[in-house]
Amino acid sequence: MSQSRPALTAVTTALAAGALLAVTALPTTAAAARQAAPAQQKATGVQTTTVRYGPFTIPATDGHDHGGTGNRIKFNVQKPCDDCFITGFKPNLVYADGSNANVNTGPMLHHAVFGNHWKRDTVCNGPQRIFATGNERVETVLPSGYGVKVGKGERWNMLYDLMNHAPQSKEVYISVTFTHESATGSGIKPVTPIWMDAGGCLGSVYDAPEGVSEKTRQWRSTVSGKLVHMRGHLHHAGHSVWTENLTTGELLCKIVAEEGGTPEFIDPHGNTEISDMPPCSGNPLGRIDRGDVLKITSRYEIEGHVHDDVMGIMVGWVAKD
């Protein structure tokens, strides 16, 4: 079963407080830099760029404990483009030959969060979190005409935590395929990420009791605009997660998790992991006005024992007025 480590609370707190420099950065070797170099398929218009981050070596399991990197931050990681709009984001964890690295062979993409230390997060007022994924590896495709603006010279950081269910160490890469186009002459409307977190701003993790439970958190919006896309993240035994606008009474997005849907998401011991969390997308999903109260609800249905350090997160993108 996948469980976050207590260290995640401290790291998330550091992110929310803007204290990224409190975490030691890993050195970037020349080989790693070469692996991270993007492979662009088109020179103009809409482009597809796959960026590999790594390699990362995940320790083997030790008895009943999963092997893992723990939470690490890499600074100034490769972006797919400069002065551009990102319109799609497809994460994965792969071996050197490009094949999927998933829990059936050991490795697990516990989480990866791409952030910008020079922009402020809308909800938590720390460094802005741009994109994030867990082992569900769901693709985000923004509605036509919308994109995440990447400024010229903008610098990204990546928080990651990788785990291993196998008795041998594994070497893997975090691979992300972006779709994007130049901002020059573009008619794309920029979108701003909002990070809705049932665990709160000072730490995403919380303990879920045995049985059915729900954890909620509210946020009073500081922005006005159209919500056009939302994606979610839960841990093992997570049933669903949803965000609603309490001011208008509108359900903005509800995502029901699939667990163990394909063999790659079943580990060597027969334990299942979240395999799909279909995102919500629309033009718009709903409207948010400054002062509206948004509520996220994270639902777990657990048999057997308490699950420590679970998460309930939804990331949305708003086209501000």
Set out the fold topology.
Layout lengths: L6 H11 L12 H7 L2 E2 L6 E12 L8 E2 L3 E6 L6 E11 L12 E14 L6 E7 L6 E2 L4 E5 L5 E9 L5 E13 L6 E2 L1 E6 L8 E3 L2 E10 L4 E10 L3 E8 L4 E7 L1 E2 L14 E3 L3 E9 L4 E10 L4 E4 L1 E9 L1
Parallel strand pairs: 9-12
Antiparallel strand pairs: 1-2, 2-11, 3-10, 4-10, 5-8, 5-9, 5-11, 6-7, 6-10, 13-24, 14-23, 15-22, 16-21, 16-24, 17-18, 17-22, 19-20
Oligomer: single chain
Strand proportion, as a percent range, falls in over 45%
Gap between N and C termini: 43 Å
User: Rough shape?
Assistant: globular
Secondary-structure class: mainly beta
Which ranges are low-confidence, i.e. pLDDT below 50, for 5 or more consecutive residues?
1-43
Largest sheet: 7 strands, mixed
* H/I helix tally: 2
Folded structure, characterized:
This protein is mainly β and 321 residues long. It has 2 helices and 24 strands. The chain has helices at 7-17, 30-36, and strands at residues 39-40, 47-58, 67-68, 72-77, 84-94, 107-120, 127-133, 140-141, 146-150, 156-164, 170-182, 189-190, 192-197, 206-208, 211-220, 225-234, 238-245, 250-256, 258-259, 274-276, 280-288, 293-302, 307-310, 312-320. Strands 1, 2, 5, 8, 9, 11 and 12 form a 7-stranded mixed β-sheet that branches. The relative contact order is 0.21. Mean pLDDT is 88; it is low at 1-43.
